[in-house]
Amino acid sequence: MYAKITLLAAAATLTACSGHMMMKTPEAPAAVTVPAGNKVVMKTVGIGDLTYQCRAKANMAGAFEWVLAGPDAILYDSNKMAVGKYYGGPTWEANDGSKVTGKQLAVSPNPGSIPLQLVQANPSMGKGAMSDITYIQRLNTVGGAAPTTPCGAANVNAKQIVKYQADYVFYRASM
After folding, report:
1. What are the CA-CA distances from residue 43 to residues 116, 123, 133, 137, 146 (Å)?
2. What's the pTM?
3. Three-class SS of residue 18?
């Protein structure tokens, strides 16, 4: 019995400590590489929908295009546990209530899917997983590209939902 309890305690300690291990910075195209002085603190997989809307192109009379209206995805950790959500803003919100928004700095094409992306985070709201996030990368995108169906005067303001998946990597400033 004592050996079993000791083994369980050791496993619990190892699991608890693994959250503090150094996470490897993923490989990414130069355009979406996070600046030096930041470290990976969380990796998630976002699975969900991107909503596109058919709109008139700015300053181009008679021209229309599909424009991203917003995301709606669940963020999962490496154990496939839901740890947060991603929605319009853009906003990444952890289950603990902390959240962060950001500004796109760069993209890198990924043919057939939404582009890879580098986002600089705004100051976070609430205390928790999203506290003090400095950058967010969107990598390994699958799907999510704008619809290929026609977009024109006949269906202006129409919306289409496209399924997608992407890795979201969160960074904080190195101490």
Report:
1. 15, 19, 12, 10, 25
2. 0.85
3. helix
Read off the tokens for 69: 């209206």
Q: How far apart are CA 94 and CA 89, in angstroms?
A: 15
Number of structural domains (the chain) is 1
Phi/psi at 31 (5° precision): -60, -30
Residue 109 lies in a domain: yes
Would 136 be classed as within a structural domain?
yes
- Residue 81 inside a domain? The answer is yes
pLDDT per residue as tens, the chain (175 positions): 433 333 333 333 333 333 445 688 899 999 999 999 999 999 999 999 999 999 999 999 999 999 999 999 999 999 999 999 999 989 999 999 999 999 999 999 999 999 999 999 999 999 999 999 999 999 999 999 999 999 999 999 999 999 999 999 999 999 7
